[in-house]
TrEMBL record:
It comes from Botryobasidium botryosum (strain FD-172 SS1). This is Aldehyde dehydrogenase. Pfam families: Aldedh. It comes from the Eukaryota. PROSITE patterns: ALDEHYDE_DEHYDR_GLU. Keywords: NAD, Oxidoreductase. GO terms for molecular function: aldehyde dehydrogenase (NAD+) activity. The lineage of its organism: Eukaryota, Fungi, Dikarya, Basidiomycota, Agaricomycotina. The active site is at E219, C253.
Length: 465
């Protein structure tokens, strides 16, 4: 929270863009061997600088070292390895189903890099949400400029220092800065833009991209609900939900945002939250050392205002400390549908419980709002599960746990509707930055068969078609 970020001078941005484009045009990112070498280098960047990344994230987000390993460093190592091992397979041309009319022209789909791409990242998961998309861009053979978040100066400075040292500095570049720098980047014509962040900025990104007809991938957020089946083991549900809510201090796009629970089960669920809270934080010291902080004072103020103005009852936590940007894990019960806590994504360690009479009401409630990025269901009843899954739509769905979809190497990170579109992660990342190009090679001798297509259209030729 003390680091200063050196913003990229605005006048340098067009030059950086031109250099990346020029680098791409050399064609050296085409060979698979080059892409693998760059991915290997990316792996070394994290392996050789582990401590610097944990320190940077501790400085930016007050993140405990264990969380940085669990949430970012361990997964990114696996994702890079996956990209390294799979790029050859992903890049292979694909055949199409046998077509009697055209098989002699050997039709196939070849995978072309889209070109020079822009990746704009958020503050909450700088490695997973900025570097993981870069894995896809490298694997696809693209050049890329990344713009990390200005809210995490230590980590964004580290990217600016290390990426040119480890990767091909002509093709992979970092621009640091805030709105002005992003705006300047967005004025340029990219071959793809991948943006991760909030939906309001996503509209600005999409409008800027539309000026150049540039395709976009938008990774956004929203309010991800949890539905509780009262017959579930509520102590287990509470422990898993609370873990998802306190990890990274609730600043996760797929954090459980609110809980829908029958009124009859609310008190048992709260008892579960209280027990889990005690288990996670036996002493106040554990609380301070095992929890991330809120990224910036304006986000702290936003969350504090929510706590001060909710009409629900705080049953766990509720304390906060602005000097330390710390908010205690807080559970609020009897929250009404129109409460301040239910207006927008909370993105902090506050968990409202909205009593909901039955499953139909819970489903209707979810469907009356934007499609969420994640939907969590706690039940062991297969009919309950399928009723929820078959009657709702969300970016992803997890039964009886939270967050795990983001750690799975082959799942695309993808929203739907206002929670985003497109995706990356595993092969989806490669596909995002790849143009699937239909390819045919038509031999000259095939004119024996193709002749009828040429004028003049005599009756004999028409019969032959
Ligand atoms: P943020 O404030 O770090 O902003 C994200 C990026 O947008 C930054 O790089 C920032 O510089 C840039 N930006 C800000 N204003 C801009 C403007 N006017 N024009 C152009 N660029 C601008 O992070 P945030 O937006 O607060 O991120 C939190 C949101 O991101 C939450 O809604 C969260 O759910 C979502 N998120 C989604 C995913 C996902 O994978 N779907 C992952 C992480 C976060």
């Amino acid at each position: 929270m003390t680091s200063k970020l050196a913003y990229t001078p605005l006048e340098d941005i067009p030059r950086i863009y031109d250099a990346a484009r020029k680098g791409f045009k050399t064609g050296r990112a085409r060979p698979i061997a080059y892409r693998k070498e760059q991915l290997l280098q990316l792996g070394y960047m994290f392996q050789e600088n582990t401590e610097r990344f944990t320190e940077a994230l501790a400085s930016d987000l007050g993140r405990p070292i264990q969380e940085t390993f669990l949430l970012e460093l361990d997964p990114i190592a696996g994702f890079i390895k996956k990209g390294y091992q799979s790029v050859e397979k992903w890049a292979k041309p694909e055949g199409i189903p046998f077509d009697f009319n055209f098989f002699l022209a050997k039709p196939k789909i070849v995978k072309e890099p889209k070109g020079t791409v822009l990746i704009i990242g958020p503050f909450n998961f700088p490695i997973l949400c900025t570097i993981r998309p870069l894995i896809g861009a490298i694997a696809a053979g693209c050049a890329a400029v990344i713009k990390p978040s200005e809210l995490i100066p230590a980590t964004s400075s580290l990217f600016a220092e290390l990426i040119p040292q480890y990767l091909d500095s002509e093709l992979y570049k970092v621009v640091n800065g805030g709105v002005e720098e992003s705006t300047s980047l967005l004025e340029l014509q990219w071959d793809h833009i991948l943006y991760t962040g909030n939906g309001n900025v996503a509209k600005i990104v999409a409008a800027a991209a539309a000026k150049h007809l540039t395709p976009t991938t938008l990774e956004l957020g929203g309010k991800s609900p949890v539905i509780i089946d009262p017959k579930m083991d509520l102590a287990l549900a509470a422990r898993r939900i609370l873990w998802g809510k306190v990890t990274n201090a609730g600043q996760i796009c797929v954090s459980p945002d609110y809980v829908l629970c029958p009124p009859s089960a609310q008190e048992e669920l709260i008892a579960g939250f209280k027990a889990a809270y005690k288990e996670f934080y036996p002493t106040p010291d554990d609380m301070r050392t095992s929890m991330s902080r809120i990224v910036a004072p304006h986000h702290f103020d936003r969350l504090k205002k929510l706590l001060d103005s909710t009409s629900g009852n705080i049953v766990v936590g509720g304390k906060s400390d602005k000097a330390d940007l710390w908010i205690e894990p807080t559970v609020v019960k009897n929250v009404k549908a129109d409460d301040v806590l239910m207006q927008s994504e909370i993105f902090g360690p506050i968990l409202p419980i909205v009593p909901m009479e039955d499953l139909d009401s819970a489903i209707n409630f979810i469907n009356s709002r934007d499609h969420p990025l994640a939907l969590y269901v706690f039940t062991n009843d297969s009919q309950f599960k399928s009723k929820v899954v078959n009657n709702t739509l969300s970016g992803g769905v997890v039964i009886n746990d939270v967050l795990l979809q983001g750690a799975t190497a082959d799942f695309p990170i993808a929203g739907v509707g206002p929670s985003g579109n497109g995706g990356y992660g595993g092969k989806a990342g490669f596909d995002t930055f790849t143009h699937r190009r239909p390819y045919m090679d038509v031999p000259g001798w095939l004119d024996m068969l193709l002749k009828p297509r040429y004028a003049p259209y005599t009756p004999k030729k028409i019969r032959a078609l």
